[in-house]
């Protein structure tokens, strides 16, 4: 029974880690596409530092 429980916990950790990696990868991909689409809006912004 202990061995089955240990295998189940290991499997659960592996699945959670894989899902976390997938979520982060998808988030970064959508973020990159968002930045790319923001580049093509047709205007620019200039930031000036006042002293």
Describe what you observe in this structure.
Keywords: Membrane, Transmembrane, Transmembrane helix. The protein is mainly α and 51 residues long. The protein has 1 helix and no strands. The protein starts with a helix and ends in a 12-residue tail after the last helix. The model has no long low-confidence stretch (mean pLDDT 82).
| Overall mean confidence score, pLDDT | 82
**Element order: H for helix, E for strand:** H
- Helix content, binned percent: over 70%
Q: In total, how many beta strands?
A: 0
Give the overall shape, derived from the CA principal axes.
Answer: elongated
Q: Which runs of at least 5 residues are low in confidence (pLDDT < 50)? A: none
Our measurement of the CA-to-CA distance between the termini, rounded to an integer number of angstroms, reads: 71 Å
Most strands sheet: none
Instruction: Count up the helices.
Output: 1
Name the structural class. Answer: mainly alpha
Tell me the Rg in angstroms: 22 Å
How much of the sequence lies in strands comes to under 5%
Question: What is the secondary structure topology, with strand pairs?
Answer:
Elements: H1 2-39
Keywords:
single chain; 51 residues; mainly alpha; 1 helix; 0% strand; elongated; membrane
Short characterization:
By secondary structure, the protein is mostly helical. Helices cover 75% and strands 0% of the residues.
């Amino acid at each position: 029974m202990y061995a089955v429980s240990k295998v189940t916990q290991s499997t659960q950790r592996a699945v959670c880690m894989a899902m976390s990696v997938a979520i982060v990868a998808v988030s970064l991909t959508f973020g990159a596409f968002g930045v790319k689409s923001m580049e093509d809006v047709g205007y620019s912004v200039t930031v000036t530092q006042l002293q």
